[in-house]
């Protein structure tokens, strides 16, 4: 297992290099002139050219890329064109709000998703199954921006239970975490139901029941453990999507996270911030895939070989 982890860690390096090239090219293809935005709408052509030289945008793309990568290997993510602050500080200030929002969204999504999936699988074609799958389909189908606006209208505007935005207290996490985790909970429920139904047809499950094991022990201890392998894969990917893709929810709830920072950076053509965030999202996905593979080996020792 240790050798496998080391190999995967070394495999991250070429992947990130390829991603860095693609991100750099795509970012510079965004329409608009960042030098003009920095200089201001009333700046003269000469002033814009001076700003362009100061930002290094007058150099060839190849030179800009190697300059950027040289700083990256030294731990320098560059300086924000908008705020003139180090990009590392910009991301560090926004990372924890997004991280904790993602954590709370995943916690309740996993709990409710597994519960609905197990109940639907064990009560197949009964009212519990139909209710659970109706809830799951609704969670997948409802757009996150619409769900967020409806929750704000009901629980913030009309009832006044929760704030409409920001992250000033723990109550601020409730509505955005529900909005962000609704789709994930629905997907987990459907995956759990499908996987568990297949496992419950296996011979060793019939043997356990024939030996007189209680149904709860058969389902929760023996069947669910083996049914969790595809669920873990999907959950890991969903965690990566939430951590890097909560842009809509953060915009609806005025959440000071990475999603809002990315939107603001794209609007301002802040190349260093955009590149750093996209590379961070790519690294998160790669790291999460590694963690999922390690969990495979823990859950099923046969996979180690």
TrEMBL record:
Superkingdom to which the source organism belongs: Bacteria
Cell compartment(s), UniProt: Cell inner membrane; Cell membrane
GO-annotated molecular function: nickel cation transmembrane transporter activity
Entry GO terms, CC: plasma membrane
Alphabetized Pfam families for the sequence: BPD_transp_1, BPD_transp_1_N
CDD domains, A to Z: TM_PBP2
InterPro entries given in the database record: BPD_transp_1_N, MetI-like, MetI-like_sf, Opp2B
Entry keywords, A to Z: Cell inner membrane, Cell membrane, Ion transport, Membrane, Nickel, Nickel transport, Transmembrane, Transmembrane helix, Transport
PANTHER family assigned to the protein according to its UniProt record, in alphabetical order: DIPEPTIDE TRANSPORT SYSTEM PERMEASE PROTEIN DPPB-RELATED, GLUTATHIONE TRANSPORT SYSTEM PERMEASE PROTEIN GSIC
Protein family membership: Belongs to the binding-protein-dependent transport system permease family. OppBC subfamily.
Protein name, as recorded: Glutathione transport system permease protein GsiC
UniProt organism field: Ureibacillus acetophenoni
């Amino acid at each position: 297992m240790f050798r496998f982890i080391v190999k995967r860690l070394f495999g991250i390096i070429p992947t990130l290099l390829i991603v860095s090239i693609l991100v750099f090219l795509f970012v510079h293809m965004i329409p608009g002139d960042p030098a003009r935005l920095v200089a201001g709408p009333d700046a003269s052509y000469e002033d814009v050219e001076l700003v362009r030289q100061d930002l290094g945008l007058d150099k060839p793309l190849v030179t800009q890329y190697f300059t950027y990568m040289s700083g990256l290997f030294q731990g320098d993510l560059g300086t924000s064109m908008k705020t003139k602050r180090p990009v590392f500080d910009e991301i560090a200030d926004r990372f924890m709000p997004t991280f904790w929002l993602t954590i709370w969204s995943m916690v309740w999504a996993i709990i409710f998703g597994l519960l609905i999936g197990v109940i639907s699988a064990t009560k197949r074609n009964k009212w519990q199954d139909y209710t659970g799958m109706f809830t799951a389909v609704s969670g997948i189908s409802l757009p996150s921006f619409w769900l967020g606006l409806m929750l704000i209208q009901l629980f913030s505007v009309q009832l006044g239970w929760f704030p409409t935005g920001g992250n000033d207290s723990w109550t601020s996490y409730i509505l955005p975490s529900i909005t962000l985790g609704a789709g994930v909970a629905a997907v987990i429920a459907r995956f759990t139901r499908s996987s568990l139904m297949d496992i419950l047809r296996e011979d060793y499950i019939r043997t356990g029941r024939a030996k007189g094991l209680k149904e709860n022990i058969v389902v929760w201890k023996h069947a669910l453990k083996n049914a969790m392998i595809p669920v873990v894969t999907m959950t890991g990917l969903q965690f990566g999507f939430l951590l890097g893709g909560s842009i809509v929810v953060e915009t609806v709830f005025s959440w000071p996270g990475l999603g809002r920072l990315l939107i603001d950076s794209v609007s301002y053509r802040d190349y260093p911030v955009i590149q750093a965030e996209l590379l961070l999202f790519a690294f998160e996905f790669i790291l999460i895939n590694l963690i999922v593979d390690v969990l495979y080996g823990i859950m099923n020792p046969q996979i180690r070989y």
